[in-house]
Specification:
The complex is a heterotrimer of chains A (593), B (180) and C (247). Chain A is an alpha/beta fold and 593 residues long. Chain A folds into 5 domains: 9-66, no CATH class; 78-167, Glutaredoxin; 173-388, Rossmann fold (3-Layer(aba) Sandwich), CATH 3.40.50.11540; 401-472, Ubiquitin-like (UB roll); 476-559, NADH-ubiquinone oxidoreductase 51kDa subunit, iron-sulphur binding domain (de novo design (two linked rop proteins)). Helix content of chain A is 41%, strand content 12%. Chain B starts with a strand and ends in a 15-residue tail after the last helix. With 247 residues, chain C is α+β, with helices and mostly antiparallel strands. Classes of the chains: A alpha/beta (593), B alpha/beta (180), C alpha+beta (247). Chain A binds chain C through residues 9-10, 13, 43, 46-47, 50, 56-59, 61-62, 64-66, 328, 330, 345, 350, 352, 487-496, 498-503, 506, 526-527, 530, 533-536, 570-571, and chain C through 46-52, 54, 61, 63, 66, 68, 85, 88-89, 92-93, 95-96, 126-127, 129, 151, 160, 164, 166, 168-178, 180-184, 186.
């Protein structure tokens, strides 16, 4: 397809035109193609792309350096990224494969055959350890499987000839609830909406008490109403499928096995707010789903559930396109996601204005989580009472949890809100639990004395991640992993988060190495408070949570690691002499500290 | 031993400019010396701190192993350690070498630089080994007070010492607070 | 007590008027109330990234440069706690880059330095990051020294909004975020920047400098030798100083 651009470069800075078929021309998709083809994004490609897409070179370069899946220097023909998540990652396995293939982590082997590095959680927490190879997911890793992978790579066997079952991703639904058990007839929600009328259906959504399932919990009905009332040239519906919170994978299941209800939720939203266009922003780690999702979209177009005059309604036109991210947790934040849709770095916008009035291309936009939209489709069919008969006062309906970590049966569990933590632990076969990270690293860390607490916006809010840590787990290492995650994922826009997450990471590293003192703990507490309160967006405002929670609930973790002196150096003095020792070939007593 | 406040001073990876500025207190040193006594310092040529120092004034950052030893001696023997000047506080001009690796620095200076005779990187055991980066002193020991400037003006030295002699928290008025 | 023509907000107990569309920062500047800031410059689109202008509005933390003023807001700004927060944020900016004031041509005219003086900052407090960043001296009359960049994006906005160009951008993410220029070579000489562009003069630190004009003003007569950053009306002085037209 030929791009059709009538705007000059400068206008493109502010907003890119509303192309009817973004997919083939979207900057992130084009960069992905180049990355796959050439194993990096060379200078010439940037210049060519700038010319073709009518984008400034600087905007393309800015994006390449922002997204983790793009590289300036060549990666291997087999480019492997091991998840570094506490649930679906295993760094010893990464090292094992590096050793097998004689390549250093983060580097590309001299012959260009292979490169191995790590990546933030890839959403396979119920079937890890897992990795991505040239963007494709391999789960359930074992050393035995790694040996075979090493062989295939040494023999340059194309991925297409690798065992198909390695790339299989299972749903692992362990407990069906309101949404997962309800059958869904494609079109049924739309028919109900049309029959009931937009105003009345909007009221139903509002009455249902449905709140955003991404974790923040804003009323879905209100959001849709605000957007419907907002004035604009066009309205947009965006489904946030950038499921990046470590430990979360429930959207993966909804998109794999319940895509009709998700797309129908988007279409109903479009009907209610007067949008003609919807976008599914899919995290790059789920690229493997693309054929399945495209097939569902095609099916819906063929069934007149998408396209023009949907279900014979004269003025009801709505279509959905898929935009795929490129490795950036921050794009789960709705305004960053919109920036990313607009082919820019995913930097959170200043709010207000909120997306409902000024979102994609500056137009009124609803951004909802996958689960929220699926729930909305079911509410349209079954009514608000069906939904809010479940759950608790302030938390109507159900929540799909992604349960991972130290339990017998990791997977997806759907519960009515109000369920106790202990109930969940009993169901998934978790015993001798030391702690649980509820709602992922950005959520809440709790210990056994809080297992009677309940899931819901009034007590423990959750986006779905539920990471269980058994009694033998090194919990401080987990907290350290999370601190690294946030420092890696900070977008760098505001000072508190950009510098603060790095300082917190360094502080924790120092303590974990056994070089920390009470002073370092106090410093970390002070910095954590500042980052939490003064950061620009939700990432920074939640990044210190694991540290603050751990300091409050598990102080002994830190105390056990502390050196009992007033002050310890912030760098390894003796290691700082190593380079000089090498250069001078000295190893006498004076050559050490 | 007298009742005077014992003050030790040293210059690590610095240029002695802070010491020169300190001496710019001129005749006020006569008054000051009524209350203080210099311990280890380039001014006295005493080689090591007595273990009863009250105040240690440290100019310069850390660029080599010897700097670290001297700094630790000061921290162990001085009740109050003051980082004096830009280099002690953030590495200063010497830390501009951190833009390069130590290998690059030494190869340029001793192997590849213009006019280098008999190229070799010195490795005599008498020469302290260089740290791979220059660091400010608070990255290695606890520092009690900071006296910024390049150099801090003589008045700033007087103000901080006078405050301490009077038993007050040292503070710098804005007109003598600067980083250059 | 306030109708639409006579709306007020209260900053540290002082009631000041504002007009619709103004931010807290706009209203404060108009009332000669100084709220420390680095990434804000009147006339350019607010950015809200440095967080120096953080205030507490009815108990909630907000950036005064981006938050619209609304009638009746109770705002704390010049408090011990908030100034401590601002000092810490300034220290974070200092240790994150390579800010060697004694060797910087901007010293004495640098807003980062002046804000630090204002907040009685004596040291960087945190361990230095000592990042390795590139210098771009390719242009005949303008130099970029990224060691000193604080990512305020004033140059990015000045170029787009005032100069009508698009010379600068911020690339990358997290602590690897960096200032880049819009040219395939990545060099300033290959952009359409002019020496007289606002973008060449607006840098609050010494990251973008006009060449061959270093240390022209003797110590004692530089902007912040003579003025406090908190003085009303000092911003135009700083900008003029950058252009060296008032000497």
């Amino acid at each position: 397809m030929k791009p059709h651009h009538g705007l000059n470069t400068h206008t493109n800075l502010i907003s890119n035109e509303n192309s009817d078929h973004l997919y083939n021309n979207h900057l992130l998709h084009r960069l992905h193609d180049i990355q796959q083809q050439l194993h990096h994004i060379p200078k010439q490609s940037i210049t060519d792309l700038a010319e073709e897409l009518k984008l400034p070179v600087s905007q393309i370069e800015a994006a390449i350096d922002f997204y983790a899946f793009f590289h300036r220097s060549a990666r291997g023909r087999f480019d492997i990224m091991f998840s570094n998540c506490t649930s679906c990652g295993d760094m010893t396995m990464m090292q094992y494969l590096c050793d097998q293939l004689s390549v250093m982590p983060g580097e590309t082997r001299a012959d260009g055959a292979v490169s191995i590095s790590d990546a933030s959680c890839i959403g396979m927490c119920d079937q890890g350890p897992a990795l991505l190879i040239n963007g494709r997911t391999i789960t359930q890793l074992s050393n035995q499987r790694l040996d075979l992978i090493a062989e295939y790579i040494q023999d340059s066997t194309p991925l297409e000839q690798w065992p198909v079952e390695w790339f299989e991703v299972h749903d692992n639904v362990r407990k069906n609830g309101l949404l997962l058990s309800a059958p869904f007839e494609p079109g049924s929600g739309l028919l109900a909406a049309i029959k009931q009328g937009a105003e009345s259906m909007l009221a139903s959504i509002d009455d249902s008490g449905l709140r955003g399932r991404g974790g923040a919990g804003f009323s879905t009905g209100m959001k849709w109403k605000f957007c419907r009332e907002a004035v604009g040239d066009a309205h947009y519906v965006v489904c946030n499928a950038d499921e990046g919170e470590p430990g979360t994978f429930k959207d993966r299941i909804l998109l794999t096995s319940h895509a009709h209800s998700v797309f129908e939720g988007m279409t109903i939203c479009g009907y209610l707010i007067g949008a003609q266009k919807g976008y599914l922003y899919l995290r790059a780690e789920y690229r493997y789903m693309l054929p399945v999702l495209q097939a569902v979209l095609t099916n819906r177009q063929e069934s007149n559930l998408l396209g023009t005059k949907i279900l014979a309604q004269q003025d009801f036109n709505f279509d959905i396109e898929i935009i795929i991210g490129a490795g950036a947790y921050i794009c789960g934040e709705e305004s960053s996601l919109i920036e990313s849709m607009e082919q820019k770095r995913g930097v959170p916008r200043v709010r207000p204005p909120f997306p409902v009035t000024c979102g994609y291309l500056g137009q009124p936009t609803v951004v909802n989580n996958v689960e929220t939209l699926a729930a909305a489709a079911h509410i349209a069919v079954h009514g608000s009472d069906w939904f809010n008969a479940h759950g608790s006062d302030k938390s109507a309906g159900s929540k799909i949890l992604s349960i991972s970590g130290d339990c017998l049966n990791p997977g997806a569990y759907e519960y009515a809100f109000g369920v106790s933590i202990q109930q969940i632990l009993d169901d998934c076969g978790a015993e001798d639990v030391q702690a649980i990270q509820v709602s992922g690293p950005s959520g809440t860390l709790i210990g056994p004395d809080e297992f009677e607490r309940k899931l819901g916006f009034e007590d423990l809010a959750t986006g779905g991640s539920f990471m269980i840590f058994g009694k033998d787990c090194d919990l401080l290492k987990v907290i350290q992993n999370f601190a690294h995650f946030f420092a890696h994922e900070s977008c760098g826009f505001c000072t508190p988060c950009r510098v603060g997450t790095t300082l917190l990471r360094n502080g924790l590293d120092k303590i974990c190495k056994g070089c920390g003192t009470q002073y370092d703990v106090d410093e970390m507490r002070r910095m954590a408070a500042l980052v939490k309160r003064r950061s620009h967006c939700g990432l920074g405002q939640t990044a210190p949570n694991p540290i603050l929670d751990a300091l409050e609930r598990f102080p002994e973790l830190f105390n056990a690691k502390l050196v009992h002196s007033d002050y310890e150096p912030h760098f390894d003095l003796d290691a700082a002499l190593e380079e000089a020792r090498q250069l001078t070939k000295r190893d006498d007593a004076e050559a050490h500290l | 031993m007298s009742n005077k406040i014992r003050v030790a001073t040293t210059s690590l990876a610095g240029c002695f400019g802070c010491h020169m500025s300190f001496l710019d207190i001129d005749e006020r040193i006569v008054e000051l010396i009524e209350h203080i006594e210099f311990d280890r310092s380039p001014l006295t040529d005493i080689k090591h701190c007595s273990n009863t120092c009250d105040i240690g004034l440290i100019e310069g950052g850390l660029c080599n192993a010897e700097n670290v030893h001297v700094l630790k001696e000061f921290r162990e023997n001085c009740k109050i350690v003051i980082a004096v000047g830009a280099c002690a506080i953030n590495g200063g001009v010497p830390a501009m070498r951190n833009h390069f690796t130590l290998t690059e620095c030494l190869e340029e200076a001793y192997l590849n630089g213009v006019g280098v005779d008999n190229p070799m990187i010195p490795n005599d055991v008498e020469i302290p080994l260089l740290l791979n980066k220059v660091h400010p002193i608070h990255e290695v020991v606890h520092v009690d007070y900071y006296l910024p400037g390049c150099p801090p003006p003589a008045d700033a030295f007087m103000k901080v010492l006078t405050d301490l002699l009077e038993g007050k928290e040292p503070s710098l008025p804005k007109d003598i607070l600067h980083y250059d | 007590m306030s109708d639409s023509n006579n709306q007020t907000i209260t900053i540290d107990g002082r009631e000041i008027p504002f007009t619709a569309g103004q931010t807290i920062m706009d209203a404060a500047l108009e009332a000669d109330i100084y709220i420390p800031h680095l990434c804000h410059r009147p006339g350019l689109k607010p950015h809200g990234s440095c967080k120096l202008c953080t205030v507490d509005v009815d108990g909630r933390s907000a950036s005064s440069c981006t938050l619209p003023a609304t009638a009746g807001q109770q705002i704390s700004s010049n408090t011990t706690d908030l100034n401590e927060v601002r000092k810490t944020i300034t220290q974070m900016l200092f240790v994150e880059g390579n800010h060697f004031c004694p060797s910087c041509e901007k010293t004495g005219d640098c807003t980062l330095q002046a804000v630090a003086y204002h907040l009685d900052m004596l040291d960087g407090h945190f361990p230095q990051f000592y990042p390795r960043r590139e210098v771009d001296a390719s242009h005949a009359s303008i130099i970029i020294d990224r060691d000193r960049c604080i990512l305020c994006a004033l140059c990015v906005r000045a170029s787009r909004e005032v100069d009508g160009k698009n010379v600068f951008d911020i690339a990358g993410r997290g602590s690897a975020a960096k200032l880049i220029v819009n040219a395939p070579s990545g060099k300033l000489v290959d952009t359409d920047i002019d020496r007289d562009d606002l973008a060449a003069h607006i840098c609050p630190v010494g990251a973008i400098m006009i060449k061959e004009h270093g240390y022209e003003v003797p110590i004692g007569r530089r902007t912040f030798d003579l003025h406090s950053v908190a003085e009303p009306g000092v911003e135009p002085v700083i900008l003029r100083k950058g252009k060296h037209t008032d000497e």
